[in-house]
Amino acid sequence: MPSTGPFASEEEEASCLKWVLGHCKDYKRKIAEDGQFTLDAFDDLSDIDDPGEALSKIKQIVSYCEDRLLELSSESDEETFDLESWDSTWYSFSGLSAVLGNPVTIHDHKLDKNEYLPFGYSEFLFKTMIFEEGTEVTHLYTGVPEPVSWPLYKVDQKGMTFYISSARICEIDAVCSVPSLPEYIESDEAGRRVLDDSRGEEEWQRRLAPRRINSIREFIEGSENIIANTPILFVKPGTGSVTIEDSTLTVDLGKFLKKTSMKGEDKWYDVVPGQEDYRPIWLIDGQHRVRGMSRSRTGKDLHVPIIVFPEEFRLHEAAKIFAEINTLQTKLTSMHTLFMQHRFHIPSHISKRDFRPWEEGVQEHHNSRANHLSYEAAGYLASNRGGPLFNRIRILDQNAQNFTVVKADQWVDFGRSWFLKNGPYHPGCGMTQDQMNAEIENYFTAIINTCNHDGWDSPRWSPTSKNKGLIQKHSHFKVLIDIFPSVWELSIGPGVPVPIPVEKFMDALEPLKWVDWLHADLKSTFGGGGEKGRSGLRIWMEDAIRGGSAYEMEEVMSGSIKSEAGKGIMSPPGKPTLVIGGDTKWPSKGNSVRIISTRPTNSLLTSYWEIVDPDGSGRTEDETSLAKPNRDQSTFEIHHKDWMDDVDFMFVKVEWRNAASPPTGRDEIRLSRPRRD
Fold this sequence. Notes:
alpha+beta, 5 domains
């Protein structure tokens, strides 16, 4: 009893039904646990209005699947497949999946096991084997297929030659591989690839996303859908199987396919999963389109326009094109984009992502210099075995997340300032890159030594992925990057060698010795992803090291010692001071009053001001002022308003806050109108 509709066989239909049932079980549990879910984002994808209706839909879907599985298990030869019932069930299931944040395609049930397709390029194709997770594919042939041949149209641009053509999807699939990154790579190896761009030179593309492939596969099977985007191909140097002559590209499959014997019969294959892909042309762009369409009976024979870069184009230039296409269009993950921008020197109008080639001393290259040096410092620290951050910087998405303490894009975002005009390693600082890297490494060694001393019963900087303190979290490690210039400034001086030694950094960091990074109240005060906690922690640490005094743990971890440098890390700010700046004591037309407030130690840089009239009514809306850099004070100007002519006095109030607030540090001053004659 053959199945019809979207399934090739009864076995395939049964597999899909069981897969749907498994998901329904998970969805039912999710709804029971969460109680409700948000539907606003999926109004166009589903007619489900509330959790109760979702549960009703699940019951209907389950009922259909169970009944249909019973029919399939029967021995009846009568065709019972009802396309209308299936379409209604699938519509409900896919809508429910979208609402619950798990969009699906009809092909996704095949990802849990190997899939075999009887179609592809050439009559000699025995089968196409798609292995678990849908990313590794091997074509198996009973003989050597005829060569692939494409007519070429030459394009010359800026002294470089490439070609335009068209090709069937199955032909592209048969002869093209992808230089993708490994599924998993250690942080230290990724760091080495940052420092040496010849390392892993054939591994820089993103990996296939199975669901994206299936989405394209489903899309192209729609009766009116077409895909006209142009895949970009690059002929790998030295393969010997690709020739370009007389405006024709020819690929001789017999020169790259490998012969084997299976059950006494000769077969030819193109890929050893997880090891080597022998296909001689690289898919620089368009791998998901090609792989998705090639898995469709409808899509495999469709023609698409292609661009071909010959092997004379050079690997670096081909990869650079991929990088430019994907980074400039923001298609890659942020860390993959960063890796490609650095490796292939991609310029950008965004200063923190400008990685054009740079020359020392050229002002227009200062941003590029800062970005390259910062990223390479991350690569050095991540790959330097025995160093404080070995394997601890997540260079690529494939690196283990739990063990790392910071992502490379965060490192560059916050650390690039070290290499700019006012940073320790500004252009013209006179230090070599090796000296800079060694000095940065010494700083982080000093950080760990300061955290892990004999006074603790357990490390406050965990050497493993477990029991990480607050400062080791991805969210808060940036604080250590932010305070480095302050620590560096306190560590330099006459007689201090270059690079600054670990011991000198430790002297500056001594006030942080008794910060308990594992303390639950500390995590509650400064934790979370908000900027307030990170800024509050940074300011306390900077105030402490600038104060220069080290205190006992009880004083450091206090929640009641207000505004003393190096003490009361969990305390709110103390009372500020308010003074009138200048001779003007009352605002009049053309004359304003300046009120100056000194920032209480350990408070954030923003102050909040209010003017209150004699009736107690606020006359301003929560106005703010920033403490001026290096002055630790803010100024608030009171300009004349008509209502001031009718009162004899008013109060000016200021409030300073930190991560421990409330309560806040507050003060007020009374302004009195001069006596009227």
